[in-house]
Each structure stands twice: as C-alpha cells, then as structure tokens.
Amino acid sequence: MTTHSLLILALLCGALAPLHAQTIGEVDTVFKFIGPDHKIVVDAHDDPKVKGVTCYVSRAKTGGIKGAVGLAEDKAEASIDCRQIGPVSFVKPLSLQEEVFSERISLIFKKIRIVRMVDVPRNTLVYLTYSDRVIEGSPQNSVASVPIDRALKIPLQ
Question: Which residue, 41, 62, 122, 132, has fewest beta-carbon neighbours within 10 Å?
Fold first, then answer.
C-alpha cells in the first residue's frame, strides 16, 4: 500500500469510529500566568446503544503547569443533562445498568463516568455522572432522565 492509501484508510477508520465525546465549548474560570487557565468544559456524549439521545456534561478542568502536562487532578464535580435530539432507536437490547462512558481526569487514579440505568415501569432512561478514585471516591454526582414514548418499549437483555 502506498502512503497516500494508508492515509486515506486511517482517515476513513477515524471517521467510522464512534465518537465518545465532543467538546461543545468551554469558559475560563481562573487566569493562570503559566499554562492554560482553569476552565469549565461542556462535552456532548452520544449514547452508543440509543440513537437519538445525547448527554451534555459540564465539568471543571484544571489548568496551570500541571494541567498543561497532564499531571493535574480535575475536581470531582460534574453536571449532566440528557435529551432526545432525534427519533429514538435502539442499536441492541440494553442492560438494566451499564457504563456508557468513562474518561481519565487525573494521571492514574481518577475517572469521570456516565452510567445508563433503565427505569422499566416508567419507560425512562436515567443517566448518572460521577467520578471515582481508586482509593477514595466522591459522592458528588448528577442525574438526568430521558422519558421514552410508551409506544416504543425499551428492549432489555
């Protein structure tokens, strides 16, 4: 294969791979003389098994020198809001509870997570965001729900 063919193949694979998060925007909260400012970042997360549902998560992102080199530990606080953005369809049956997204927010030990839960009696998808750490997690969390039209039953595993 030529270099040109490999480049096209790599771009195609990247375009076909599911996006886990897309940054929608950010605002500076603290000016730093050296390194990036502290920020609040808003990301969009499309549910990989539920087409037509997107969750928007806002969270703090630490700047400064540690933030620039990836050594900073971001705050545990996050907020989530999930919405139906188009017709809802299910790629495959859902578990009653499943992690749909996870991202590292410190060098080794801390992650932000989004978990989807199915509220069967109300035909509703419930999304929880929280952060955890290997040694000591945080009780800080946020929850959002997306009611699904009763005519469309949520398929379960």
Answer: 122
